[in-house]
Amino acid sequence: MKKIIALVLAVLFVCGALAACGGNAGNNTKATADQKTDATTAAKSDFKAGFIFLHDENSTYDLNFINAAKAACENLGVECVIKTGIPESNDAKQAALELVDEGCGFIFADSFGHEPFILEAAKENPDVQFAHATGTRAHTENVANFHNAFASIYEGRYLAGVAAGMKLNEMIESGKITAEQAKIGYVGAFTYAEVISGYTSFFLGARSICPTATMEVQFTGSWYDQDAENEAATTLIKNGCVLISQHADSMGAPTACEDAGVPDVSYNGSTVDACPNTFIVSSRIDWTPYLEYAIKATMNGEAFDTDWTGTLATGSVVLTEVNEKAAAAGTQAKIDEVKAKLESGELHVFDTATFTKDGKTLDSYMADVDTDEAFTPDTEVIADGYFHESEKRSAPYFDLQIDGITLLNTNFG
Amino acid sequence: MTIMKKHKSERDPLFHVVRRTDISFGKAMLIRVLAVLAALVLCGIIIVLITGENPFEMYKYMFDGSFKTPRKFWAMLQDLALLLCVALALTPAFKMRFWNIGGEGQVLMGGLGALITMKLLGDDGAHLPHAVILPLTILAAIVFGAIWGVIPAIFKAFWNTNETLFTLMMNYIAIQIVLYFQFIWSGGSNTIPIVNAGRETSTYAGWLRLPAEIDPSFTGSTVVPSSSGFLLNIIIVAVLTVAVFFYLRNSKQGYEISVVGESENTARYIGINVKKVIIRTMIISGILCGIAGLLIVAGTDHTIDTNSARGYGFTAILVSWLAKFNPFYMILTSFLIVFLQKGSIELASKTNNIINSNFAEVLIAIIIFFIIGCEFFINYKIMFNPRKKRKEAEA
């Protein structure tokens, strides 16, 4: 019996060895090709940039960052070290320190909950520049090598809302729905300022085109939960919502819309491949401009912004191509027109003349801009007739629940 | 015993299986080593077929995950210690055939107990001196863990409820309670800030750590341990490992646990109070889980969220079973699990996600499958029936 085991193992080993050799042969050519590209990039720089991502590329949110990281590193000719699946715990600090060990001069983390741990790693390594997306603490912490960044994504969502409004008008004109039935459904993750700012700007964009539009919001309590997002979208559709948008990271809502034949404005990137009949347009943050700016500054030893807000002008807030099959005619032209107005400052997303809270127009609002545990409002953010979102700090702080939007539930996590 | 049905022709099967009664330790280990090697070969074949990467390079990356730098090595030891601590906690209950799958919740509650004392009594709250807070932190963690462990035990002892379901459900309650504190203490951001951090005069109140003279990794501006700051956690778990080993093997209580596990009727017959043993053992189980929570919150993270127990409450079940409930073998089995986890992260990072963490998990599953599967060959012997005899039978 020993002999048989020995024989079986011997056969396994031979297979393994052969397979390994086969793999090697295949890899050799690839390796030389790699070396070539390495050689060309190494000529430019031996700088390393490290990235810490919460999930891997199966999450649209992280995929958006992964693509930007790869593009920025490629453009600058620096080496890109990516760590995926890093939880929002001390593990994030460990991951950052490991990246420091590997020689990264710039380290970037993509998830809100990474912040306190990345901040710790930054304090410990003053020679390395740390940047954290979506965070709120850099502008008050005074740690020279710790930076926050975000983008004025509410402008992108407003434009996506314009596309939604066009679609609603088309449906009303064709007699498919009445003006009163123009109800939008929105699948949100959590009842945080980031999400509230997002759905409100989307709604205002839609209502600027279709004045009778209303909205219902359903929260899932997770940034990534395919089943919950699918179910939330289905519930909204059953409630009579004729158009769906989302601020959560899975394909749950877009696929529910495709199944039900309901038009959908998605987020983080185009879902046209999976949803060719219902996908209208998607807004997303392109992180490439920020990463290029920050990495370049680090390489040159220059200081860069502690708290950076990307805009339409920096190319950070972008819309995907409009899917002509699902969108109303003339959508792209309308988007371009509104975009020009936003860029020129002629139009403001959170113009206080366009929304009310409890039936009243606001002329003053104190928001919690400087993070503290009690969530104390500390900064006046309404001036010159509009709410100054993402100006006092990069991360959103618009948390007003305006009239016209119904929250079906709330979920703070 | 034969595993194949006799054919019409009364032909003997090719082989039959015999239970082994006396396998030497060396031979058993040899079978295990061969199983790991066979698993690695199979993984190698799969890697080549699916990705075309060189499997030896992949194994090197997996090794790097735990050993490449001193920092990685320390981080591996820290995770090993925490996983081992939870496995040690579950083992007395398992030996008693009390299926405690509530380790996750017990660890979370222990951690929450520690966090509540640190926050309310430390610089964020009552400003008590460190010497007062630390014992209270330890006590709170132990009490919280013990309470979470003893509730299902009481129900089991007096009303014979199903402990598997009960402990499992207690996990979800613990998660929701932590979520509640996450909400009220985070100002809506869902992340409880690191306790007592960010103050110039921070006394690190309630933090479990070695003095700076012994462990310099805490000095300077940082407040969360970076690498060797894990030393105290590791020492504590090492002591617990020895203690649990002798408790189970040499103490009267350890003996009572195994008798109750073998047969409750026997235990009753020889005068063991079964109810008392169940409750006492689950208190111990809960206390050890509470200590794991203490090490995570007061020793490492200084904050808590629903993932703070890292799923170790469930992984530790595997660790404990693989080691056949022997605390010293558990060092090996927890090392194996942590090594594979660290390796898979490194693998994903080094291959730029060509092999992502999901694929790495497939590889881990294959390796664990082989290790569990090889137990069959340790417990049973395959006897090949001689060809001649088979021919005779045919004739």
Structure description:
The complex is a heterodimer of chains A (413) and B (395). About 7% of the residues of chain A have low confidence. Chain A has 2 domains: 89 residues, 3-Layer(aba) Sandwich (Rossmann fold); 221 residues, Response regulator (Rossmann fold). Chain A is 42% helix and 17% strand. In chain A, α6 runs antiparallel to α11. The longest helix of chain A is centred in the N-terminal third of the chain and has 43 residues. With 413 residues, chain A is an alpha/beta fold. In chain A, the strands form 4 sheets. A 7-stranded mixed beta sheet of chain A has the order 12-10-9-8-6-7-17, sandwiched between helices. Chain A has a 6-stranded parallel beta sheet with strand order 2-1-3-4-5-11, with helices on both faces. Chain A has a two-stranded antiparallel ribbon with strand order 13-14. With 395 residues, chain B is an all-alpha fold. Chain B has 2 domains: 92 residues, no CATH class; 281 residues, ABC transporter involved in vitamin B12 uptake, BtuC. Chain B has 14 helices and 2 strands, in the order βαααααααααααααβα. In chain B, strands 1-2 form a two-stranded antiparallel sheet. The longest helix of chain B is centred in the middle third of the chain and has 30 residues. The radius of gyration of chain B is 25 Å and the shape is globular. Chains A and B meet through α1, β2, α3 and α4 of A and α1, α3, α6, α12 and β2 of B.
Predict the CATH topology of the largest domain in chain A. Answer: Rossmann fold
CATH class category of the largest domain in chain A: Alpha Beta
What integer value in Å does the Rg of chain A equal?
A: 24 Å
The helix/strand series of chain B, from N terminus to C terminus, equals EHHHHHHHHHHHHHEH
Number of helices of chain A: 11
Principal-axis shape of chain A: globular
Number of distinct beta strands of chain A: 17
Characterize the main sheet of chain B.
2 strands, antiparallel
Number of DSSP strand runs of chain B: 2
Number of domains of chain B: 2
Residue stretches of chain B low in confidence (pLDDT < 50, at least 5 long) are none
> So what's the CATH class of the largest domain in chain B?
Mainly Alpha
